[in-house]
Amino acid sequence: MASYAQQQLMQIKVPQGCVAGQLLQVKAPNGQLLQVAIPQGLGPGSIFQVQVPAQVQQQQVQKQGPDPMALFAAVDTDRSGSISDYELSTALSTAGMQFSRKTCRYLIGMHDRDRSGTIDRSEFSSLWNYLQQWKACFDRYDKDHGGSIDLNELTTALKEFGYNTMGPNFFAAILRAYDEDQSGTIGMDEFIQLNCEMYNLTQSFKRMPSDSNGNVTISYEQFLQMTYSGR
């Protein structure tokens, strides 16, 4: 019955069967239950507003997650307006996302529009939004929310991404290639890296001349070039 109208006010509609002075139990934006009294002169269907307690407002702000621009400013210690792969790794770690410098270099390469080797505020904002989309995707396959996905979960993800004609050996090989600690699982860091690299390899493959069945013939040199250009 309650909706969040603005940052400090909640808008509440009086339910049927309720009268003025009656206490209602409503849910604040952060999920916390609050007790509010129906003002005098109001009946079913009427709408009134109550102020959200300061503590609840603060909890709601915290729930929204870190401010990406604050993360950027915190690691841009020389105030150059741009950050390196090391600084990016630090910023993401502060936000609770552990990324290797290798993956950070990869992410910078994808969002570094001016090819400076670093990213500015605008590029970081784009990168941050990109990571949030990948995090939502990763969380969908991380069924137990343990922060990693196993072979079955990875197989499901890749098949839904379009690699549905591949056999079990292919998916097992992909997991082994990115499972650096040999735990039998991969985290979001490796998940993003493998999908980006597989996408680049797929695009390189599609640019090669093919027959009517979609098969291509390439030399060993072309194979190596295509493989390493995708990483």
Notes on the protein architecture:
There is one protein chain. The chain is mainly alpha-helical and 231 residues long. It folds into three domains: 2-63, no CATH class; 65-141, EF-hand (Recoverin, domain 1, Orthogonal Bundle), CATH 1.10.238.10; 146-231, Recoverin, domain 1 (Orthogonal Bundle). Helix content is 48%, strand content 12%. The protein has nine helices and seven strands, in the order βββββααβααβααααα. It has helices at 54-63, 68-75, 85-94, 101-111, 121-141, 151-160, 168-178, 188-206, 220-229; strands spanning 2-4, 9-13, 23-27, 33-37, 47-51, 82-83, 119-120. The strands form three sheets. The chain has a three-stranded antiparallel β-sheet, with no helix packed on it. A two-stranded antiparallel ribbon has the order 3-4. α2 packs across α3, α3 (85-94) crosses α4 (101-111) and α6 (151-160) packs across α7 (168-178). The model is unreliable at 1-7 and 59-63 (pLDDT under 50).
List the defining traits of the structure above.
two-stranded antiparallel sheet, Recoverin, domain 1, mainly alpha, 3-stranded antiparallel beta sheet, 9 helices, disordered N terminus, 231 residues, 3 domains
Structural class: mainly alpha
The appropriate CATH architecture of the largest domain is: Orthogonal Bundle
Number of strands: 7
Count of the domains: 3
